[in-house]
Specification:
The protein is mainly β. The protein has 3 domains: about 290 residues, 5 Propeller (Tachylectin-2, Chain A); about 140 residues, Sandwich (Jelly Rolls); about 190 residues, Jelly Rolls (Sandwich), CATH 2.60.120. Helix content is about 5%, strand content about 40%. The chain contains 3 helices and 46 strands. Strands 32, 33, 34, 35, 36, 38, 40, 41, 44 and 46 form a 10-stranded antiparallel sheet that branches. Strands 21, 22, 25, 27, 28 and 30 form a 6-stranded mixed sheet that branches. The chain has a 5-stranded antiparallel sheet with strand order 1-5-4-3-2. The N and C termini lie far apart (about 65 Å). The N terminus is likely disordered. Bound molecules: beta-L-arabinofuranose (FUB). Beta-L-arabinofuranose binds next to strand 2.
């Protein structure tokens, strides 16, 4: 069973994205990051909810996962690499698989981990070996002799010698086999007094660094601190703090430091997804900088984290880089914190910034979708970089009063869209500010509309290979509120399609850009070629920022036949109901709540006269998508293609 579960994890990788914490859906504490084969691998410990019968107020961990990423934004979960039940010396009911490490030597990957043993007390440190950083790992039958403690970390020096550090803090050289101590353990000298654990050692520019979580004040919590030395096992000189204690009181912190593609990163943890119990933690990443003399600058934890977000992916602006102090951050759902956060800009002028968004994939005519919540109509602006930066988009948040269309109900989440006034180049920072009443934002996404239409050219078109007519004059949607499509009976449709909405409705041969008045609406005709066999009316309306639901569309096209073509049938599919007229005569009615299906309905036999034939259609829809596909078929149900579309 365990094997099956393991396989399932391996074959259904979880891809998680961006910002801090970097993994959601599961807890990931004590993250050790290593670079193997040009990717960053993260080996965290795996906090879980304690099962019944197991101590509820303590750390609880039963297995390890490994994650990898090429951009520090998208993380791939390679699944479980070891469980407490399968490792020979580990207590299968210990739930004590604490902070691990993994290093590579001569093409083999050595995974080190602490756990409670089957017999005896305390912690031992085990090792497992694999040919790949993702495993499968083979576990040694016994823990490493001479190590009693937690949190192993291994440093491989430039001369190939390896050293292992653990607990608070001891160290020893490792034999070449990486599985045994080459000498006895020694306490590291020169470290500041106070509780320490989770050592992470590394070497840079000839300096050895020993970094560790440290309780520097009585009754305090863990800060991250470091010492430096010219020797791998010290003596050490205390240098300072890398990260201060958690501002929200998470007792532990545990970290690793890694260089990737020329930049340095601090991996650490915080109890973001478990605010009321700090023993369920989640991995975070922030940039780390060195001073010229090799000392480390303090890292200020951010919600934004690291990596570049592509503008066309969902950007959780609640994980902002910086914000005005009145900005409020809350969980979307306190019963499921993994759903993440929402940010509230409570008043006019409240702002936040979100750094490093890449617009290079955003094309012309782009627009923005934002998931928002508001009680009253309001507005917010997105500028490039800062308060006086260029306006990228201004978003009007209209809270619905009649509840008929987009369902933008007060106090509930809904999506709003706005065209982009300006498209930044490359990677830039966003500045978002409220310009009216309070507004909450969950995410933003920039989009370039897929191409559904092009302007019709002057050259006549032909039906496509299957006979579908793709050139049409389409009128912008007429407001025709209907809550459901079930009202579209023959009687309703005859009455409502034959009503006059605009003058010349049954005779007009519209010019591109020609305007008509339908009630209070002033609407424009657009002469278009559809990119697809089905004419996507929904996309037509959406692309023009017009209403998409509860609407009536009118379409006209001109069929030019070199000869009379007898005994053809008009074959139509539409979403939803539609009616079609050829040369002024009704030829087909599609009633009811329809989906668009090719040749869903066919007309009686009709004749296409020599020369110009005017085909006119009207499509009505309540909620949902609207589109149609139209062709003529002959008596053998073959498409008729011997005409031009003008
Ligand atoms: O995750 C369990 C323990 O908490 C780690 O081993 C310590 O470093 C602390 O983070």
């Amino acid at each position: 069973m365990k094997e099956i579960l393991k396989l399932l994890f391996l074959s259904v990788p979880l891809v998680t994205t961006a910002q801090n914490p970097v993994i959601s859906g599961q807890f990931t504490a004590d993250p050790t990051a290593r670079v193997f084969n040009n990717k960053v691998y993260m080996y965290p410990s795996h906090d879980i909810y304690a099962p019944e019968g197991v101590r509820q107020d303590w750390f609880c961990m039963a297995d390890y996962h490994v994650f990898s990423s090429e951009d520090l934004v998208n993380w791939h979960d390679h699944g479980i690499i070891g469980t407490q039940e399968e490792i020979p010396w580990v207590n299968p009911k210990g739930y004590s698989m604490w902070a691990p490490d993994c290093v590579e030597k001569d093409g083999k990957y050595y995974f080190y981990f602490p756990a409670g043993p089957k017999t005896g007390r305390g912690f031992g440190v085990g090792v497992a070996v694999a040919d790949s950083p993702e495993g499968p790992f083979t576990f040694e039958a016994e823990p490493i002799k001479g190590i009693f403690g937690i949190d192993p970390c291994v440093l491989i020096d430039d001369d190939g010698k390896s050293y292992i550090y653990w607990g608070g803090v001891s160290g020893a050289p490792l034999k070449d086999n990486m599985k045994e101590l080459a000498d006895k353990a020694q306490r590291m000298e020169g470290l500041p007094s106070g509780f320490k654990e989770g050592p992470f050692a590394f070497k840079k520019d000839g300096h050895y660094y020993l970094t560790f979580p440290w309780v520097r004040e009585e009754e305090g919590t863990e800060a991250l601190a470091y010492c430096m030395s010219d020797e791998p096992l010290g003596p050490w000189e205390y240098k300072g703090i890398i990260m201060k204690e958690s501002p929200t009181g998470c007792w532990t912190n545990h970290h690793s430091i890694v260089e990737y593609q020329g930049e340095w990163y601090l991996f650490y943890h915080h109890n973001d997804y478990s605010p009321s119990f700090d023993k369920r933690r989640s991995a975070r990443i922030d940039r780390l900088y060195f001073n010229e003399d090799g000392t480390i600058r303090e890292v200020i934890p951010t919600l934004r984290g690291v990596g570049i977000n592509h503008a066309n992916t969902r950007i959780d602006v609640d994980r902002y880089s910086d914000a005005a102090k009145e900005v409020e951050l809350t969980y979307l759902d306190t019963t499921n914190t993994f759903r993440g956060w929402e940010v509230r800009l409570p008043k006019k002028g409240a702002w936040l910034t979100y750094n490093d968004v890449d617009f290079s994939t955003i094309g012309e005519r782009a627009y923005l979708t934002a998931n928002v919540k508001a009680d009253k109509n309001t507005r917010f602006v997105i500028r490039e970089k800062n308060k006086s930066g260029k306006v990228i988009a201004r978003i009007n948040v209209q809270v619905e009063t009649d509840g008929q269309r987009r369902r933008n109900y007060s106090g509930q989440w809904f999506a709003v869209t706005a065209p982009l006034a300006y498209i930044p180049q490359g990677v830039t920072n966003l500045y978002i500010a409220c310009e009216g009443e309070a507004v909450s934002i969950d995410w933003l996404q920039f989009k370039t509309p897929e191409k559904y239409f092009t302007s019709a050219s002057a050259t006549p078109a032909k039906p496509d290979g299957e006979g579908f007519i793709r050139r049409w004059s389409l009128l912008e949607p007429i407001d025709k509120p209907n809550r459901s499509n079930t009202v579209f009976t023959d009687t309703y449709l005859r009455e409502h399609f034959n009503m006059e909405y605009f003058s010349g409705q049954f005779t007009i041969i519209p010019e591109d850009g020609q305007k008509v008045k339908a009630g209070k609406q002033r609407l424009t005709w657009h002469k278009l070629d559809s990119e697809r066999f089905n004419v996507k009316l929904f996309r037509f309306a959406d692309g023009l920022q017009k209403q998409i639901y509860g609407v009536l569309f009118w379409a006209v096209t001109i069929i030019d036949c070199p000869e009379e073509i007898k005994d053809v049938r008009l074959a139509v599919g539409s979403n939803s109901a539609s009616m079609w007229w050829l040369n002024g005569e009704e030829v087909l009615l599609l009633s009811g709540d329809r989906r668009m299906v090719k040749d869903d309905a066919v007309s009686p036999r009709i004749t296409l006269k020599k020369g110009r034939n005017i085909l006119r259609g009207a499509v009505i829809n309540g909620p949902g998508m609207s589109d149609f596909c139209v062709r003529f078929i002959d008596e053998d149900e073959k498409p008729v293609t011997g005409f031009e579309i003008k």
